Amino acid sequence: MAATEVEIGPAVERAPVPETAETAAGTATTSPATAAAAIVAAAARTGTEATASKAALATKLLSLSGVFAVRKPKGPTSAELLNRLKQKLLAEAGMPHKEWTKRKKQTLKIGHGGTLDSAAGGVLVVGIGRGTKMLTSMLTESKRYVAVGELGRATDTLDSTGKITEVKPYDKITQEDIESILQKFTGNIMQVPPLYSALKKDGQRLSTLMKRGEVVEAKPARPVTVYSISLQKFQPPFFTLDVECGGGFYVRSLVSDIGKELSSCANVLELTRTKQGPFTLEEHALAEDRWTIDDIAQSLEHCSSLLPAELTLKKTKPEESSEQVLSCKSVTLNETTGNDEIIKTF
């Protein structure tokens, strides 16, 4: 499914600060960065050079705080990509280590604000440390998408991943026809969200209920904002749109509605988020080969200048809502039992 839909309700996981017995007492009242610094000193006294190096990386990782952007490819869900990022960072820092004790755990918090579905790619905004508290603000920022629509076919998901539900002719539709109706979808408009979405009913996503074969009623139309739409290319049956919109907007619904307005039907073939808030795909989104502690530290420093000063100090609390998505994960990786790591998700 294509992506702009997000629901609020953070799911939090937690990841531990490694510590030795001699530093356990101090970490209970110190910050993660300070606690990790103590680990470096302990490693230098009791461990090998390699252990000290890993502990230094753990210190740096746990001191990271702010908001940055990564490049999401098609395929994985946003949650899966976030987990991949988290695991790469933990592995680079050597966390967890079998010699670390279970007591007095500190946490690594990491989350994303603004879900992109598995079929979509582009900018995914990530918060780390205290930056996870800024993610709610990212949901209200403007977003920009490049969408490739296909005329003549409708699907149950409103994109190419779904089952075809309708086929209609499109051969008489011209470029001028499409351009002439785009104004109807610009400004403050009403939009019905798709049934396959992250919106919830009785605590469960509508898409999950649909996949189970349960009967789901469409959500009522709701107000959304479209700042601009332009037709970039038209090669029947395909047309490419550049869309800038506000939070809660569904590009899939837009493409479907355009098809209906043209007395045909349409679905989204490809979707790429090129911008979210101040973060752009070309300038700010880190590709996976740059998911390192050093690269993220540099990106956080650069991206901090893009955010309003008041936002960096704001302590927002995610609201409970069934109409937007905020995924905020932190994982507690405990001491290993045998060869298996115990991972608790909260």
TrEMBL record:
Family under the similarity heading: Belongs to the pseudouridine synthase TruB family.
Cell location: Cytoplasm, Cytosol; Nucleus
A Pfam family it matches: TruB_N
This enzyme's EC code(s): 5.4.99.25
Domain Pseudouridine synthase II N-terminal: 102-251
Protein's gene: TRUB1
PANTHER family named in the record: PSEUDOURIDYLATE SYNTHASE TRUB1, TRNA-PSEUDOURIDINE SYNTHASE
Keyword RNA-binding (UniProt): no
Name of the protein in question: Pseudouridylate synthase TRUB1
GO molecular function per UniProt: pre-miRNA binding; tRNA pseudouridine(55) synthase activity
Record-level GO BP terms: mRNA processing; mRNA pseudouridine synthesis; positive regulation of pre-miRNA processing; tRNA modification
GO CC terms, sorted: cytosol; nucleus
Keywords on record: Acetylation, Cytoplasm, Isomerase, mRNA processing, Nucleus, tRNA processing
InterPro entries for this protein: PsdUridine_synth_cat_dom_sf, PsdUridine_synth_N, tRNA_psdUridine_synth_TruB
Catalytic reaction list: a uridine in tRNA = a pseudouridine in tRNA; uridine(55) in tRNA = pseudouridine(55) in tRNA; a uridine in mRNA = a pseudouridine in mRNA
Function: Pseudouridine synthase that catalyzes pseudouridylation of mRNAs and tRNAs. Mediates pseudouridylation of mRNAs with the consensus sequence 5'-GUUCNANNC-3', harboring a stem-loop structure. Constitutes the major pseudouridine synthase acting on mRNAs. Also catalyzes pseudouridylation of some tRNAs, including synthesis of pseudouridine(55) from uracil-55, in the psi GC loop of a subset of tRNAs. Promotes the processing of pri-let-7 microRNAs (pri-miRNAs) independently of its RNA pseudouridylate synthase activity.
